[in-house]
Specification:
- The protein has about 260 residues and is an alpha+beta fold.
- The chain has two domains: about 5-215, Immunoglobulin-like; about 220-255.
- Helix content is about 35%, strand content about 40%.
- It is built from eight helices and twelve strands.
- The strands form three sheets. Strands 2-12-11-4-7-8 form a six-stranded mixed sheet. Strands 1-3-10-9 form a four-stranded antiparallel sheet, with no helix packed on it. Strands 5-6 form a two-stranded antiparallel ribbon.
- The protein is globular and about 85 Å long.
Amino acid sequence: MSLLARITAILALLSGGVGAARAETLIAAMSSHQILITSNYTGSQLTVFGVVERDGRTVARGDPYDVVVTARGPQRMLLVREKERLGPIWINRTQRRFPDSSLFLTVASNRPLNEIISSETARRERVGLENAQRSRDAGLDLDVTTARFREGLIRILAVKNLYRARERGVTFLSSTVFSAPIDVPATAPTGSYEIEIVLYAGGVPLARQTTNFEVVKSGMEQNLAAAAHDLPLVYGMVTVLMALLLGWLSSVVFRRD
């Protein structure tokens, strides 16, 4: 190996060592990566566990660690309509479309977000219920009407328990170990969900980790859904025959002689 190559290798090792010494490492795991929907399903709860690993040679930080956990569900095109009164009736006059929006959104933190990061940082990194659904086009966020419709979207989904903000939803079991329960209501749609865990200190993001889980149907519900999707003609015919059979049985049972 030439002298220049040796010097380059040594510099690379030193720079890598310094970078590793400065950065915290965030390790996260989940209690389960799959939720099964059955006939008696009433909701479920998952727990995110995390550990902050710090190189022993680094100087301890003056600010304590903060953690923000964001769980978001399947992406869909969501349409919000605003009703206006026209005489004696109410009609839909104005609407806004929100493409690639999450049907499920939970934001949990160990303390209020405004105590962890500034409002500018929250908007830039799209943290919190109000910011997670913002368009990446900054110009659209200046539209007052769009902002009003976005607030309405959050309000509607919050009533259905699909949107939640938990300011004390993350618990530090020690200075570097934390947990965060994620409630998944029965109204949550099937599909893939993503969980993002971000570590902060002094309002600065230090580390980030992502994981995911799925909500799927099982048992008879899954078989019926698969039959309706794969064999729609057969499924429709069977459904009609069952309706006719039930109608005939009802006429026999409740027949008056």
